[in-house]
Amino acid sequence: MKNRGPTSKLRHFRRAQEGQALVLTALALVVIMLMAGLGVDVGYLRYQKQQMQKAADAGALAGAAALVYLSPKWKVSAVADVAANGFIATPSNGITISAYNPPIDPPFNTAPDNFNYVEVVVSQPQPTFFMRVVGGFAVVPVTARSVASAAGSASGCIYVLDPTQAGSYTISGGARLTAACGLFIDSRNPAALVENGSGTCTKATYIGIVGSDSGSENDCFPGAQPVSDIAPFADPLAGLQPPAVPACAGGPPTWSPPGNCSYNPNSGLHCTHSATLNFGTYCGGINASGSNTTITFLSGTYVLEGGGMHIVGGATANGTGVTFYNTVNAGDSPAYDKIFINGGSNTSLSAPTSGPLEGILFFQDRNLPPGYVHTVNDTISGDSNTNFVGTLYFPLTKQLNYTGGSLATAYTVIVAYDLTITGNSMINDDYSTIGGISPIHSAVLVQ
Question: Are residues 352 and 296 in the same domain?
Answer without folding.
Answer: yes
